[in-house]
Amino acid sequence: MYSNQSEYEKRVKTGVHFMLGNYAVVEGALAAGCSYFAGYPITPANEISELMSQRLPEVGGVFVQGEDELFSIYSIVSASLAGAKAMTATASAGFNYMQEGIGYACATEAPIVIVDVQRCRGENFATQADVMQMRWGASGDYEMICLAPSSAQELFDYTILGFNLAEKYRNPVIIMSETTIALMRERVEIPSVEDIEIINRKYTNLSPNQYLPFKASLNSPPEMAPLGKGYHTLYTLNYHNEDGSIDWDADGYDRLYKRITGKIRENRKDICKTESFFLEDAEEVVIAYGSEVRPALDAIVMARNDGLKIGLLKLITVWPVAEEQIREVAKNMKKVYVVEMNIGKYYREVERLCVPFCSVEAITKNQGIIHTKEEIFNAINGGIHDR
Length: 387
Hints:
Radius of gyration: 21 Å
Strand content: 15-25%
Shape: globular
Number of helices: 15
Largest sheet: 7 strands, mixed
Distance between the termini: 59 Å
CATH architecture of the largest domain: 3-Layer(aba) Sandwich
């Protein structure tokens, strides 16, 4: 991707920084190899575009401010299909406008990264209300990869992970940011170049006459073809044959979308990541994602100090659902609590996995601010004494 090592090193600001969460996203994207960014101004994501406009030209990349979110999403899809690692950033209202383009990216299997800095409707306050739209917002059949950072450090780390997953599976990846962490300044440690894992898309070794752009093994993405080398591909939202042509065939449609969804769903063991705290002797567990992990962990420490045997399962991957990990934890628990900064949306996903083994309770807050540790502790403590 780069002509020499020093060119790549310009992208990686190795060292310890005190960094805004939105800036950590930019540095993570550059470290992952992002070379194209298109965006439209919207709070609280503007700092991403702002820093990208400075940093990308420094490393030979391209920054474009589009006239709206539709331009942004279609622009990065086009750049990706042309060979670039591409990203956009928006906030909840702008994310609404991108759904058509996200559906197109899924259908054409374009590896892109989208940062959604969630905010309350019409206001710049924190929320996790977009969690279902991130999975189900676009039309048609598809699977989505969605990562939920809980700190500025993880905004850096998960942005790199997001690019790697996008490239590996030829699928959009959403970084589920929030106002809370996006506008927070924290310690961010950027490792040396040699310690950053980078995954790049696979290109075909076949000649243009042999190459079929959408031919791939079941549950796998197809190899891409380099632009301007004689390969001709029709990238369409419509059903397409392995050669990219549009010719309706019911069985072919079924095969195509079994593969497009299967490449994510059937590779959950590789994609889905969680982190566990205090689960060794736990009798109950809190499940949380994003910024809510922070007060949830503090509340569990309070509960532990009070003699309660409770642990935390942190969801790094929100979509696809970490079904195996959640179900395995639930088997050994009396109760599961799901902490969310919305009206209780993801709670239902957890409930369907846990109810055969234990009860599930939602701990929700929908006031534009994350839970306090005391609020979560009191909910846990009340739930234990109610039984």
